[in-house]
Amino acid sequence: MNTLENIASVFRDTFSSQPLLVQGCGRINIIGEHTDYNEGFVLPASINRYIYFAIAENGTNECHFHALDINDSYQFSLSDIKKSDKSWANYLMGILDQLQKENILLEGVDVVFGGNLPIGSGMSSSAALEAGFALGICSLFNLQKSRQELAQLAHRSSNNFIGIPSGIMDQFASLLGQRGQAIKLDCRSLQYEYVQLDLKDYELLLINTGVSHALANSAYKDRVRECREGAEAVAQKFEGIQSLRDVSLEQLEACREDMTAVVYQRCRYVIEENERLHQALHLLTNGEMEALGELLLGTHEGLSKEYEVSCRELDFLVELAKDHEGVAGARMMGGGFGGCTLNLVKKSAKEDFLKYAKKEYYRAFSVQAEHYELEIVDGTDIVRG
Length: 385
Ligand code: GAF
Known about the structure:
The chain is an alpha+beta fold. The chain has helices at residues 4-15, 87-101, 125-140, 147-162, 169-176, 216-237, 249-254, 261-286, 289-306, 312-322, 350-365, and strands at residues 20-29, 41-42, 44-57, 62-67, 72-77, 109-115, 181-186, 192-196, 202-212, 327-332, 338-346, 370-373, 381-384. It folds into 2 domains: 4-197 and 377-384, Ribosomal Protein S5, domain 2, CATH 3.30.230.10; 202-373, GHMP kinase, C-terminal domain (Alpha-Beta Plaits, 2-Layer Sandwich).
């Protein structure tokens, strides 16, 4: 865990210059999981978990990156940007690569970064890395890009340089988040609106399984492929289908024989999840927190049984939440196979629930689960210029 002050001070000691300071935000997603790459809707928000950067240009062609949390460094020349075996460095290099592809000439930069956003926790430390670095570089070199353009650039970097066919939710949430608000984002048109997160006497709480499965990347790619296959099968029978976003449950049912059972079940989850998101918006507006919690449980059920991206530890934590007084609902959050559960908990029941969940989790897995109390904050930003 590093603070902005640490990062700035290590930078000054290492490079003897005054850096630009940036904070890249993590995100939660209320509902709408694995819908973004199907051109559906998502409801994320940026949270008070950060990766802090200290960045300065160095007048050379060389870049020096230092990842303070893991005490690792990487150095390379701007004329030779290629993927390295240090995955953290790739998230930063990918941004420079995209800028070079736009024929934007940069000079070398020195970077120190670190923070309080745990890697592999499902809060998208990768988007915080990309978003924070992209905003920092654009500010340093006076590149005129809107936040939406930066999110698109970071998303292209994830897809093309990192090689994960993810949707745009994480980068968008990190860069466009606003205090106290979730973002209802249409991942096809990128039109968005802010939704006030008034949770009445409830709050959102993350509990970290501490698990991060190696399987996640390849399974993610499989899900993207399966969804595409399903949409293509439906498009053979019905007009106007570009992605699962356009498919109704009736249409899917009519094409059930045209796809494998697995593809059918993946598609059904995605279509139902988009519907759940719209219901959730309605419940949020009406302050119906218990019904919202039920929807979260429905999402988890789908992710676990139909989409098959959960794991034992996540399922265990959700089961605990389901049975606990004062917890409206819970679900796994993000890509899956580990990370955190998102819990909608009555403020008065929070302490009791946390104590119980941590005790039971330890009993089952011999792991001390961490929890994070959330504040919905403004997204990634320059802290000091
Ligand atoms: C990961 C991806 F990066 C997002 O684009 C999204 O698909 C999410 O998993 C699942 O909703 O965070």
